Amino acid sequence: MSTTHPTAPPAPAGAPRASLFHPTVARLTYRALLGRRRALILFALPALLVVIAVAVRALAGADDSTASGILGGFALGTMVPLIGVIAGTGAIGPEIDDGSVVYLLSKPVPRPTIIFTKLLVATGVTVAFSAVPVLLAGFLLNGNSQQIAVAYAVAAAVASVAYSALFLLLGTITRHAVVFGLVYALVWEALFGTLVPGARTLSVQQWALAVGQKVGAEGALTSDVQLPLAICLLTVLTAGATWYAGRRLKSLTLTGEE
Amino acid sequence: MTTLHIDHVSRWFGNVVAVNDITMTIGPGVTGLLGPNGAGKSTLINMMGGFLAPSNGTVTLDGTTIWRNAGSYRHIGIVPEREAMYDFLTGREFVLANAELHGLGRAEAARALATVQMEYAQDRKISTYSKGMRQRVKMASALVHDPSVLLLDEPFNGMDPRQRMQLMELLRRMGDDGRTVLFSSHILEEVEQLASHIEVVVAGRHAASGDFRKIRRLMTDRPHRYLVRSDNDRALAGALIADPSTAGIEVDLVEGALRIQAIDFGRFTELLPRVARDHGIRLLTVSPSDESLESVFSYLVAA
Q1: d(CA A157, CA A146)
Q2: CA distance readout (Å), B165 to A88, A115, B29, B155, B173
Q3: Is B169 in contact with B115 (CB distance < 8 Å)?
Q4: Whether A257 and B81 lie within 8 Å, measured CB to CB
Q5: What is the pLDDT of residue A10?
Protein backbone atom coordinates (compact mmCIF):
# COMPACT_ATOMS: atom_id res chain seq x y z
CA MET A 1 0.00 0.00 0.00
CA SER A 2 1.15 3.53 -0.48
CA THR A 3 0.03 6.98 0.45
CA THR A 4 -0.02 9.80 -2.02
CA HIS A 5 0.51 12.65 0.40
CA PRO A 6 4.05 13.05 1.58
CA THR A 7 3.37 16.35 3.33
CA ALA A 8 0.90 17.49 5.96
CA PRO A 9 -2.58 17.31 4.47
CA PRO A 10 -4.26 20.46 3.22
CA ALA A 11 -7.67 21.48 4.52
CA PRO A 12 -10.33 19.53 2.65
CA ALA A 13 -12.66 21.38 0.34
CA GLY A 14 -15.78 19.84 1.87
CA ALA A 15 -17.86 22.24 3.90
CA PRO A 16 -21.19 21.82 5.68
CA ARG A 17 -24.02 22.32 3.23
CA ALA A 18 -26.59 24.90 4.09
CA SER A 19 -29.23 23.10 2.03
CA LEU A 20 -31.78 20.88 3.76
CA PHE A 21 -31.46 18.31 0.99
CA HIS A 22 -28.40 16.20 0.25
CA PRO A 23 -28.54 14.14 -2.94
CA THR A 24 -26.08 11.53 -1.68
CA VAL A 25 -28.09 10.91 1.49
CA ALA A 26 -31.19 10.64 -0.72
CA ARG A 27 -29.51 8.14 -3.03
CA LEU A 28 -28.29 5.95 -0.17
CA THR A 29 -31.70 6.03 1.50
CA TYR A 30 -33.59 5.29 -1.69
CA ARG A 31 -31.35 2.37 -2.63
CA ALA A 32 -31.51 0.96 0.89
CA LEU A 33 -35.30 1.16 0.86
CA LEU A 34 -35.80 -0.43 -2.52
CA GLY A 35 -32.94 -2.88 -2.39
CA ARG A 36 -33.99 -4.96 0.57
CA ARG A 37 -36.71 -7.43 1.40
CA ARG A 38 -38.96 -4.59 2.48
CA ALA A 39 -39.26 -3.65 -1.19
CA LEU A 40 -41.24 -6.85 -1.69
CA ILE A 41 -43.90 -5.65 0.76
CA LEU A 42 -43.80 -2.20 -0.81
CA PHE A 43 -44.69 -3.76 -4.15
CA ALA A 44 -47.03 -6.46 -2.83
CA LEU A 45 -49.55 -4.26 -1.00
CA PRO A 46 -50.32 -1.88 -3.91
CA ALA A 47 -50.43 -4.86 -6.27
CA LEU A 48 -53.00 -6.48 -3.98
CA LEU A 49 -55.08 -3.30 -3.98
CA VAL A 50 -55.08 -3.14 -7.78
CA VAL A 51 -55.95 -6.84 -8.05
CA ILE A 52 -58.86 -6.34 -5.61
CA ALA A 53 -60.02 -3.31 -7.60
CA VAL A 54 -59.95 -5.23 -10.88
CA ALA A 55 -61.74 -8.22 -9.35
CA VAL A 56 -64.47 -6.13 -7.68
CA ARG A 57 -65.07 -4.12 -10.83
CA ALA A 58 -65.28 -7.30 -12.90
CA LEU A 59 -67.59 -9.08 -10.50
CA ALA A 60 -69.76 -6.28 -9.08
CA GLY A 61 -69.45 -3.49 -11.61
CA ALA A 62 -68.81 0.19 -10.84
CA ASP A 63 -70.25 1.21 -7.49
CA ASP A 64 -69.36 4.34 -5.50
CA SER A 65 -70.01 2.92 -2.04
CA THR A 66 -67.99 -0.22 -2.79
CA ALA A 67 -65.16 1.95 -4.10
CA SER A 68 -65.27 4.09 -0.93
CA GLY A 69 -65.32 0.98 1.21
CA ILE A 70 -62.20 -0.48 -0.42
CA LEU A 71 -60.28 2.79 -0.73
CA GLY A 72 -61.20 3.97 2.78
CA GLY A 73 -61.07 0.64 4.58
CA PHE A 74 -58.24 -1.31 3.01
CA ALA A 75 -56.22 1.36 1.22
CA LEU A 76 -56.28 4.36 3.57
CA GLY A 77 -57.02 2.37 6.73
CA THR A 78 -54.42 -0.37 6.36
CA MET A 79 -52.21 -0.12 3.29
CA VAL A 80 -51.10 3.50 3.57
CA PRO A 81 -50.03 3.29 7.24
CA LEU A 82 -48.28 -0.03 6.58
CA ILE A 83 -46.32 1.42 3.69
CA GLY A 84 -45.64 4.46 5.86
CA VAL A 85 -44.19 2.17 8.53
CA ILE A 86 -42.00 0.33 6.02
CA ALA A 87 -40.71 3.45 4.29
CA GLY A 88 -40.51 5.71 7.37
CA THR A 89 -38.73 3.33 9.71
CA GLY A 90 -36.75 1.77 6.85
CA ALA A 91 -35.32 5.13 5.85
CA ILE A 92 -33.17 5.28 8.98
CA GLY A 93 -33.85 2.44 11.44
CA PRO A 94 -31.70 -0.28 9.84
CA GLU A 95 -28.73 2.09 9.50
CA ILE A 96 -28.91 2.94 13.18
CA ASP A 97 -29.39 -0.71 14.14
CA ASP A 98 -26.41 -2.04 12.21
CA GLY A 99 -24.19 0.98 12.87
CA SER A 100 -23.68 1.94 9.21
CA VAL A 101 -25.19 5.34 10.04
CA VAL A 102 -21.70 6.20 11.30
CA TYR A 103 -20.67 6.82 7.69
CA LEU A 104 -23.35 9.50 7.37
CA LEU A 105 -22.80 11.03 10.76
CA SER A 106 -19.01 11.27 10.50
CA LYS A 107 -19.34 13.86 7.79
CA PRO A 108 -19.67 17.66 7.89
CA VAL A 109 -23.34 17.37 6.92
CA PRO A 110 -25.82 18.96 9.38
CA ARG A 111 -27.96 16.30 11.03
CA PRO A 112 -31.24 18.13 10.19
CA THR A 113 -30.22 17.88 6.52
CA ILE A 114 -29.88 14.11 6.89
CA ILE A 115 -33.30 13.83 8.53
CA PHE A 116 -35.05 16.16 6.10
CA THR A 117 -33.59 14.35 3.10
CA LYS A 118 -34.61 10.99 4.51
CA LEU A 119 -38.10 12.35 5.17
CA LEU A 120 -38.39 13.49 1.54
CA VAL A 121 -37.31 10.07 0.28
CA ALA A 122 -39.61 8.20 2.70
CA THR A 123 -42.50 10.47 1.70
CA GLY A 124 -41.76 10.03 -1.99
CA VAL A 125 -41.67 6.26 -1.64
CA THR A 126 -44.86 6.21 0.44
CA VAL A 127 -46.68 8.42 -2.05
CA ALA A 128 -45.44 6.35 -4.98
CA PHE A 129 -46.49 3.07 -3.38
CA SER A 130 -49.75 4.26 -1.80
CA ALA A 131 -51.27 7.41 -3.32
CA VAL A 132 -50.53 6.42 -6.92
CA PRO A 133 -52.00 2.88 -6.57
CA VAL A 134 -54.99 4.37 -4.71
CA LEU A 135 -55.62 6.68 -7.65
CA LEU A 136 -55.29 3.80 -10.09
CA ALA A 137 -57.52 1.52 -8.00
CA GLY A 138 -60.10 4.33 -7.68
CA PHE A 139 -60.26 4.74 -11.44
CA LEU A 140 -60.53 0.99 -11.88
CA LEU A 141 -63.32 0.74 -9.28
CA ASN A 142 -65.66 3.50 -10.40
CA GLY A 143 -63.92 5.64 -12.99
CA ASN A 144 -63.41 8.48 -10.49
CA SER A 145 -67.14 9.00 -10.05
CA GLN A 146 -67.76 11.73 -7.44
CA GLN A 147 -64.03 12.42 -7.54
CA ILE A 148 -63.63 9.45 -5.20
CA ALA A 149 -60.37 8.23 -6.77
CA VAL A 150 -58.70 11.65 -6.70
CA ALA A 151 -60.01 12.45 -3.20
CA TYR A 152 -58.67 9.22 -1.70
CA ALA A 153 -55.39 9.64 -3.58
CA VAL A 154 -55.00 13.14 -2.13
CA ALA A 155 -55.85 11.81 1.32
CA ALA A 156 -53.29 9.03 0.86
CA ALA A 157 -50.64 11.53 -0.24
CA VAL A 158 -51.34 13.78 2.76
CA ALA A 159 -51.26 10.82 5.11
CA SER A 160 -47.99 9.66 3.49
CA VAL A 161 -46.22 12.84 4.58
CA ALA A 162 -47.44 12.59 8.19
CA TYR A 163 -46.80 8.84 8.47
CA SER A 164 -43.32 9.19 7.00
CA ALA A 165 -42.38 11.87 9.53
CA LEU A 166 -43.92 9.94 12.43
CA PHE A 167 -42.29 6.62 11.58
CA LEU A 168 -38.96 8.22 10.68
CA LEU A 169 -38.97 9.65 14.19
CA LEU A 170 -39.79 6.22 15.60
CA GLY A 171 -36.79 4.87 13.70
CA THR A 172 -34.49 7.28 15.55
CA ILE A 173 -36.03 6.53 18.95
CA THR A 174 -36.30 2.77 19.19
CA ARG A 175 -34.79 -0.38 17.75
CA HIS A 176 -38.32 -1.78 17.63
CA ALA A 177 -39.66 0.97 15.37
CA VAL A 178 -41.34 -1.48 13.01
CA VAL A 179 -43.18 -3.19 15.87
CA PHE A 180 -44.36 0.10 17.37
CA GLY A 181 -45.25 1.35 13.90
CA LEU A 182 -47.29 -1.74 13.16
CA VAL A 183 -49.07 -1.49 16.51
CA TYR A 184 -49.93 2.12 15.72
CA ALA A 185 -50.99 1.38 12.15
CA LEU A 186 -52.97 -1.77 12.81
CA VAL A 187 -54.25 -1.32 16.37
CA TRP A 188 -54.70 2.42 16.69
CA GLU A 189 -55.57 3.45 13.14
CA ALA A 190 -57.30 0.34 11.84
CA LEU A 191 -58.98 -0.92 15.04
CA PHE A 192 -59.48 1.92 17.53
CA GLY A 193 -59.85 4.43 14.70
CA THR A 194 -62.82 2.44 13.47
CA LEU A 195 -64.41 1.45 16.78
CA VAL A 196 -63.63 4.21 19.28
CA PRO A 197 -64.96 7.67 18.32
CA GLY A 198 -62.44 9.57 20.50
CA ALA A 199 -59.47 7.83 18.90
CA ARG A 200 -60.51 9.11 15.51
CA THR A 201 -59.65 12.68 16.46
CA LEU A 202 -56.08 11.57 17.02
CA SER A 203 -55.83 9.58 13.83
CA VAL A 204 -53.73 10.55 10.82
CA GLN A 205 -56.24 8.67 8.71
CA GLN A 206 -59.08 10.98 9.82
CA TRP A 207 -56.98 14.11 9.30
CA ALA A 208 -56.14 12.95 5.77
CA LEU A 209 -59.81 12.12 5.14
CA ALA A 210 -60.72 15.69 6.12
CA VAL A 211 -58.44 16.94 3.33
CA GLY A 212 -59.82 14.34 0.90
CA GLN A 213 -63.36 15.32 1.85
CA LYS A 214 -62.68 18.80 0.50
CA VAL A 215 -61.54 17.34 -2.83
CA GLY A 216 -64.31 14.75 -3.32
CA ALA A 217 -67.92 15.39 -4.18
CA GLU A 218 -70.31 16.37 -1.38
CA GLY A 219 -70.76 13.40 0.96
CA ALA A 220 -68.40 11.10 -0.95
CA LEU A 221 -65.88 11.03 1.91
CA THR A 222 -66.50 11.74 5.58
CA SER A 223 -64.14 12.61 8.41
CA ASP A 224 -64.65 13.05 12.15
CA VAL A 225 -62.26 16.00 12.16
CA GLN A 226 -62.87 19.46 10.75
CA LEU A 227 -60.51 20.56 7.96
CA PRO A 228 -58.77 23.47 9.79
CA LEU A 229 -58.06 21.30 12.82
CA ALA A 230 -56.90 18.45 10.57
CA ILE A 231 -54.47 20.72 8.73
CA CYS A 232 -53.16 22.11 12.02
CA LEU A 233 -52.66 18.63 13.47
CA LEU A 234 -51.01 17.31 10.29
CA THR A 235 -48.63 20.28 10.24
CA VAL A 236 -47.79 20.03 13.93
CA LEU A 237 -47.20 16.28 13.73
CA THR A 238 -45.03 16.44 10.60
CA ALA A 239 -42.98 19.45 11.67
CA GLY A 240 -42.67 18.32 15.28
CA ALA A 241 -41.64 14.76 14.39
CA THR A 242 -39.08 15.99 11.85
CA TRP A 243 -37.60 18.50 14.27
CA TYR A 244 -37.36 15.98 17.07
CA ALA A 245 -35.87 13.32 14.79
CA GLY A 246 -33.15 15.85 13.88
CA ARG A 247 -32.47 16.41 17.57
CA ARG A 248 -32.34 12.69 18.22
CA LEU A 249 -29.85 12.22 15.40
CA LYS A 250 -27.71 15.07 16.71
CA SER A 251 -27.41 13.30 20.06
CA LEU A 252 -27.21 9.78 18.66
CA THR A 253 -24.57 7.82 20.50
CA LEU A 254 -22.69 4.76 19.39
CA THR A 255 -21.49 2.51 22.15
CA GLY A 256 -19.32 0.12 20.14
CA GLU A 257 -19.23 -3.60 20.62
CA GLU A 258 -17.54 -3.76 23.99
CA MET B 1 -5.46 20.31 13.47
CA THR B 2 -3.60 17.37 14.82
CA THR B 3 -3.83 16.95 18.58
CA LEU B 4 -6.58 15.22 20.50
CA HIS B 5 -6.92 16.11 24.16
CA ILE B 6 -8.80 13.85 26.52
CA ASP B 7 -9.09 15.73 29.77
CA HIS B 8 -10.33 13.95 32.91
CA VAL B 9 -12.88 12.06 30.87
CA SER B 10 -15.29 9.60 32.44
CA ARG B 11 -18.18 7.82 30.83
CA TRP B 12 -20.70 5.65 32.55
CA PHE B 13 -23.70 3.69 31.31
CA GLY B 14 -26.17 3.46 34.16
CA ASN B 15 -24.18 2.02 37.04
CA VAL B 16 -21.37 0.73 34.87
CA VAL B 17 -18.29 2.91 34.57
CA ALA B 18 -16.78 2.28 31.13
CA VAL B 19 -14.13 5.01 31.26
CA ASN B 20 -12.87 6.36 34.55
CA ASP B 21 -11.16 9.76 34.75
CA ILE B 22 -8.78 9.37 31.83
CA THR B 23 -6.47 12.14 30.70
CA MET B 24 -4.29 11.70 27.64
CA THR B 25 -3.00 13.64 24.66
CA ILE B 26 -2.76 12.04 21.23
CA GLY B 27 -0.44 13.91 18.89
CA PRO B 28 0.95 13.34 15.38
CA GLY B 29 2.37 9.89 14.67
CA VAL B 30 0.93 6.46 15.33
CA THR B 31 -0.48 5.80 18.80
CA GLY B 32 -1.73 2.41 19.92
CA LEU B 33 -4.60 2.20 22.36
CA LEU B 34 -3.98 -1.09 24.09
CA GLY B 35 -6.18 -2.95 26.51
CA PRO B 36 -8.09 -6.19 27.00
CA ASN B 37 -11.59 -6.62 25.59
CA GLY B 38 -14.10 -4.55 27.52
CA ALA B 39 -11.43 -2.15 28.84
CA GLY B 40 -13.19 0.91 27.44
CA LYS B 41 -11.18 1.36 24.23
CA SER B 42 -14.20 1.59 21.93
CA THR B 43 -15.93 3.94 24.36
CA LEU B 44 -12.86 6.20 24.27
CA ILE B 45 -12.63 6.09 20.47
CA ASN B 46 -16.35 6.80 20.16
CA MET B 47 -15.88 9.86 22.37
CA MET B 48 -12.89 10.99 20.29
CA GLY B 49 -14.99 10.49 17.16
CA GLY B 50 -17.88 12.55 18.52
CA PHE B 51 -20.29 9.62 18.77
CA LEU B 52 -20.55 9.61 22.51
CA ALA B 53 -20.69 12.45 25.00
CA PRO B 54 -18.35 12.18 27.99
CA SER B 55 -20.28 11.95 31.26
CA ASN B 56 -17.50 14.07 32.70
CA GLY B 57 -14.49 15.91 31.28
CA THR B 58 -13.79 17.11 27.76
CA VAL B 59 -12.61 15.64 24.48
CA THR B 60 -11.22 18.27 22.12
CA LEU B 61 -9.36 18.47 18.83
CA ASP B 62 -6.91 21.35 19.09
CA GLY B 63 -9.15 23.05 21.61
CA THR B 64 -12.44 22.50 19.77
CA THR B 65 -15.06 20.22 21.32
CA ILE B 66 -15.82 17.26 19.07
CA TRP B 67 -19.21 16.20 20.47
CA ARG B 68 -22.07 17.68 18.44
CA ASN B 69 -19.63 19.49 16.19
CA ALA B 70 -20.15 18.17 12.67
CA GLY B 71 -17.46 20.57 11.39
CA SER B 72 -14.77 18.54 13.15
CA TYR B 73 -15.33 15.70 10.67
CA ARG B 74 -13.49 17.75 8.07
CA HIS B 75 -10.35 16.86 10.03
CA ILE B 76 -11.22 13.42 11.39
CA GLY B 77 -11.43 10.11 9.52
CA ILE B 78 -13.06 7.19 11.30
CA VAL B 79 -12.72 3.46 10.70
CA PRO B 80 -15.36 1.86 12.91
CA GLU B 81 -15.09 -1.67 14.26
CA ARG B 82 -18.56 -2.69 13.17
CA GLU B 83 -18.89 -4.51 9.89
CA ALA B 84 -22.08 -2.96 8.50
CA MET B 85 -21.42 -0.61 5.59
CA TYR B 86 -24.12 -0.35 2.87
CA ASP B 87 -23.46 -3.82 1.50
CA PHE B 88 -25.73 -3.19 -1.49
CA LEU B 89 -23.22 -0.70 -2.94
CA THR B 90 -20.01 -1.50 -4.80
CA GLY B 91 -16.75 -0.45 -3.18
CA ARG B 92 -16.44 2.43 -5.64
CA GLU B 93 -20.01 3.63 -5.00
CA PHE B 94 -19.44 3.47 -1.26
CA VAL B 95 -16.22 5.49 -1.30
CA LEU B 96 -17.72 7.95 -3.79
CA ALA B 97 -20.75 8.45 -1.50
CA ASN B 98 -18.36 9.18 1.37
CA ALA B 99 -16.48 11.65 -0.83
CA GLU B 100 -19.70 13.39 -1.86
CA LEU B 101 -20.77 13.71 1.75
CA HIS B 102 -17.55 15.71 2.23
CA GLY B 103 -18.36 17.85 -0.80
CA LEU B 104 -15.74 15.99 -2.88
CA GLY B 105 -16.01 13.85 -6.00
CA ARG B 106 -14.78 10.99 -8.16
CA ALA B 107 -11.13 12.03 -8.23
CA GLU B 108 -10.81 11.91 -4.44
CA ALA B 109 -12.69 8.61 -4.29
CA ALA B 110 -10.41 7.09 -6.94
CA ARG B 111 -7.32 8.32 -5.10
CA ALA B 112 -8.52 6.84 -1.78
CA LEU B 113 -9.27 3.48 -3.42
CA ALA B 114 -5.80 3.52 -4.99
CA THR B 115 -4.24 4.28 -1.60
CA VAL B 116 -5.69 1.07 -0.14
CA GLN B 117 -5.11 -0.88 -3.37
CA MET B 118 -8.73 -1.80 -3.85
CA GLU B 119 -9.15 -0.70 -7.45
CA TYR B 120 -9.20 -4.31 -8.64
CA ALA B 121 -12.41 -5.05 -6.70
CA GLN B 122 -14.00 -1.60 -6.66
CA ASP B 123 -16.88 -2.60 -8.93
CA ARG B 124 -17.89 -5.60 -6.86
CA LYS B 125 -20.70 -5.36 -4.31
CA ILE B 126 -19.41 -4.89 -0.76
CA SER B 127 -21.53 -7.89 0.28
CA THR B 128 -19.08 -10.09 -1.66
CA TYR B 129 -15.97 -8.69 0.08
CA SER B 130 -13.76 -10.57 2.51
CA LYS B 131 -13.09 -9.10 5.94
CA GLY B 132 -9.77 -7.65 4.81
CA MET B 133 -11.32 -6.07 1.72
CA ARG B 134 -14.05 -4.52 3.81
CA GLN B 135 -11.45 -3.12 6.15
CA ARG B 136 -9.56 -1.56 3.28
CA VAL B 137 -12.67 0.02 1.78
CA LYS B 138 -13.53 1.36 5.23
CA MET B 139 -10.03 2.84 5.29
CA ALA B 140 -10.58 4.41 1.86
CA SER B 141 -13.83 5.97 3.05
CA ALA B 142 -12.01 7.43 6.04
CA LEU B 143 -9.12 8.76 3.93
CA VAL B 144 -11.18 10.24 1.12
CA HIS B 145 -11.07 13.78 2.53
CA ASP B 146 -7.40 13.59 3.47
CA PRO B 147 -7.97 13.90 7.23
CA SER B 148 -5.28 14.99 9.64
CA VAL B 149 -6.62 12.65 12.34
CA LEU B 150 -7.42 9.00 11.76
CA LEU B 151 -9.24 6.90 14.38
CA LEU B 152 -9.36 3.14 13.91
CA ASP B 153 -11.21 0.77 16.22
CA GLU B 154 -9.61 -2.71 16.22
CA PRO B 155 -8.58 -2.39 12.56
CA PHE B 156 -6.66 -5.68 12.41
CA ASN B 157 -9.48 -7.90 13.67
CA GLY B 158 -10.01 -10.78 11.29
CA MET B 159 -7.28 -9.79 8.85
CA ASP B 160 -4.85 -12.34 7.49
CA PRO B 161 -1.10 -11.72 8.08
CA ARG B 162 -0.51 -10.21 4.64
CA GLN B 163 -3.42 -7.80 4.91
CA ARG B 164 -2.30 -6.95 8.43
CA MET B 165 1.19 -6.10 7.21
CA GLN B 166 -0.16 -3.95 4.37
CA LEU B 167 -2.43 -2.00 6.70
CA MET B 168 0.41 -1.53 9.18
CA GLU B 169 2.61 -0.18 6.43
CA LEU B 170 -0.12 2.22 5.34
CA LEU B 171 -0.73 3.47 8.88
CA ARG B 172 3.00 3.85 9.47
CA ARG B 173 3.24 6.06 6.40
CA MET B 174 0.25 8.08 7.54
CA GLY B 175 1.98 8.69 10.85
CA ASP B 176 5.24 9.61 9.09
CA ASP B 177 3.28 12.11 6.99
CA GLY B 178 2.42 14.01 10.16
CA ARG B 179 -1.08 12.67 10.67
CA THR B 180 -2.41 11.76 14.07
CA VAL B 181 -3.23 8.06 13.83
CA LEU B 182 -4.84 6.29 16.77
CA PHE B 183 -5.76 2.63 16.62
CA SER B 184 -7.06 0.31 19.30
CA SER B 185 -6.05 -3.28 19.82
CA HIS B 186 -6.08 -5.93 22.50
CA ILE B 187 -3.01 -7.63 21.07
CA LEU B 188 0.30 -6.40 22.44
CA GLU B 189 2.39 -7.62 19.50
CA GLU B 190 0.17 -5.74 17.06
CA VAL B 191 0.63 -2.49 18.91
CA GLU B 192 4.31 -3.11 19.43
CA GLN B 193 4.94 -3.58 15.70
CA LEU B 194 3.24 -0.36 14.69
CA ALA B 195 2.99 2.24 17.41
CA SER B 196 5.85 4.27 18.76
CA HIS B 197 3.58 5.48 21.50
CA ILE B 198 1.20 3.39 23.56
CA GLU B 199 -1.71 4.25 25.80
CA VAL B 200 -2.81 1.31 27.94
CA VAL B 201 -6.36 1.16 29.26
CA VAL B 202 -7.52 -1.46 31.72
CA ALA B 203 -11.00 -1.68 33.23
CA GLY B 204 -11.76 1.88 32.17
CA ARG B 205 -8.62 3.28 33.76
CA HIS B 206 -5.51 4.71 32.16
CA ALA B 207 -2.89 2.14 33.17
CA ALA B 208 0.20 3.32 31.32
CA SER B 209 1.34 5.78 28.73
CA GLY B 210 4.51 6.29 26.76
CA ASP B 211 7.11 4.60 24.64
CA PHE B 212 6.27 0.97 23.88
CA ARG B 213 9.75 -0.26 24.87
CA LYS B 214 9.33 1.20 28.34
CA ILE B 215 5.94 -0.41 28.76
CA ARG B 216 7.14 -3.67 27.26
CA ARG B 217 10.00 -3.72 29.77
CA LEU B 218 7.57 -3.02 32.57
CA MET B 219 5.49 -5.94 31.39
CA THR B 220 8.51 -8.22 31.03
CA ASP B 221 10.02 -7.28 34.38
CA ARG B 222 6.91 -7.96 36.39
CA PRO B 223 7.05 -11.00 38.75
CA HIS B 224 6.36 -14.11 36.70
CA ARG B 225 4.80 -17.23 38.12
CA TYR B 226 5.63 -20.70 36.85
CA LEU B 227 4.40 -24.15 37.54
CA VAL B 228 7.34 -26.57 37.26
CA ARG B 229 7.35 -30.36 37.53
CA SER B 230 10.57 -32.36 37.61
CA ASP B 231 11.88 -35.74 38.70
CA ASN B 232 13.36 -34.10 41.84
CA ASP B 233 11.32 -31.05 42.88
CA ARG B 234 12.99 -30.43 46.23
CA ALA B 235 16.54 -30.51 44.84
CA LEU B 236 15.47 -28.15 42.05
CA ALA B 237 13.80 -25.80 44.54
CA GLY B 238 16.93 -25.69 46.69
CA ALA B 239 19.13 -24.84 43.73
CA LEU B 240 16.81 -22.18 42.32
CA ILE B 241 16.14 -20.32 45.56
CA ALA B 242 19.88 -19.63 45.93
CA ASP B 243 19.68 -17.34 42.90
CA PRO B 244 18.41 -13.74 43.33
CA SER B 245 16.18 -14.02 40.24
CA THR B 246 13.82 -16.24 42.26
CA ALA B 247 11.70 -14.60 44.93
CA GLY B 248 9.80 -17.56 46.28
CA ILE B 249 9.10 -21.26 45.74
CA GLU B 250 6.19 -23.26 47.07
CA VAL B 251 6.13 -27.04 46.99
CA ASP B 252 2.60 -27.93 45.95
CA LEU B 253 2.10 -31.43 47.26
CA VAL B 254 -1.36 -31.81 45.80
CA GLU B 255 -0.27 -30.90 42.28
CA GLY B 256 3.10 -32.54 42.70
CA ALA B 257 4.79 -29.45 41.39
CA LEU B 258 6.75 -26.33 42.31
CA ARG B 259 5.14 -22.92 42.19
CA ILE B 260 7.93 -20.47 41.48
CA GLN B 261 7.83 -16.69 41.54
CA ALA B 262 10.59 -15.13 39.45
CA ILE B 263 11.44 -11.45 39.68
CA ASP B 264 14.04 -11.29 36.92
CA PHE B 265 12.38 -12.80 33.87
CA GLY B 266 15.43 -12.87 31.61
CA ARG B 267 17.80 -14.29 34.19
CA PHE B 268 15.32 -16.89 35.44
CA THR B 269 14.57 -18.28 31.97
CA GLU B 270 18.29 -18.83 31.54
CA LEU B 271 18.80 -20.13 35.08
CA LEU B 272 16.16 -22.85 35.13
CA PRO B 273 17.49 -25.12 32.34
CA ARG B 274 21.10 -24.57 33.47
CA VAL B 275 20.37 -25.54 37.10
CA ALA B 276 18.42 -28.58 35.94
CA ARG B 277 21.28 -29.72 33.73
CA ASP B 278 23.98 -29.05 36.36
CA HIS B 279 22.07 -31.08 38.99
CA GLY B 280 21.02 -33.83 36.65
CA ILE B 281 17.33 -33.02 37.18
CA ARG B 282 14.86 -33.79 34.44
CA LEU B 283 12.25 -31.06 33.82
CA LEU B 284 8.82 -32.51 33.06
CA THR B 285 6.64 -29.39 32.97
CA VAL B 286 7.47 -25.70 32.76
CA SER B 287 4.40 -23.57 32.30
CA PRO B 288 3.75 -19.92 33.04
CA SER B 289 0.71 -19.68 35.28
CA ASP B 290 -0.14 -15.97 34.88
CA GLU B 291 0.52 -15.19 31.25
CA SER B 292 -3.00 -14.11 30.43
CA LEU B 293 -3.23 -10.62 29.01
CA GLU B 294 -5.56 -9.66 31.83
CA SER B 295 -2.95 -10.54 34.44
CA VAL B 296 -0.31 -8.56 32.55
CA PHE B 297 -2.61 -5.57 32.38
CA SER B 298 -3.61 -5.92 36.02
CA TYR B 299 0.05 -5.77 36.93
CA LEU B 300 0.44 -2.57 34.92
CA VAL B 301 -2.46 -0.97 36.77
CA ALA B 302 -0.85 -1.78 40.09
CA ALA B 303 2.64 -0.70 38.94
Answers
A1: 19
A2: 43, 40, 18, 12, 12
A3: no
A4: yes
A5: 41
Query: Which pLDDT score, from 0 to 100, does residue A199 have?
Result: 78
Q: Between B221 and A181, where is the model more confident?
A: A181
**How many Å lie between the alpha carbon of B215 and the closest alpha carbon of chain A?**
24
Q: Would you say B102 and A12 are in contact if contact means Cβ atoms under 8 Å apart? A: yes
Q: Where are the domains of chain B?
A: 4-216, 218-290
Separation between Cα atoms, residue B146 and residue B109, nearest integer Å: 11
Give the pLDDT confidence score for residue A8 in this predicted structure: 36
Q: What's the whole-number mean pLDDT along residues B171-179?
A: 92
In this prediction the pTM is 0.81
CATH T-level fold of B218-290:
Alpha-Beta Plaits (3.30.70)
Cβ pair B13:A255 closer than 8 A: yes
Tell me the C-alpha distance between A226 and A207, whole Å: 8
The percent of residues above 70 in pLDDT, for chain B, comes to 92
Please say if the pLDDT value at position B72 is more than 80. Answer: yes
- Asked if the Cβ–Cβ distance from B177 to A9 is below 8 Å, we say yes
| DSSP 8-state assignment for residue A128 | I
**Residue B214 above 80 pLDDT?**
no
The interface residues of chain B toward chain A in range 128-167, judged by CB-CB distance below 8 A, are 141, 145-148, 153, 166-167
Question: Which residues in chain B (116-135) have CB-CB distances under 8 A to chain A?
Answer: 116-117
CATH class of B4-216: alpha beta
- Pick from A2, A16, A258: which is nearest to B71 by CB? A16
How many CB atoms within 10 Å of residue A239? Answer: 11
pLDDT of residue B1: 54
Name residues 157-176 of chain A within 8 A of B (Cβ). Answer: none
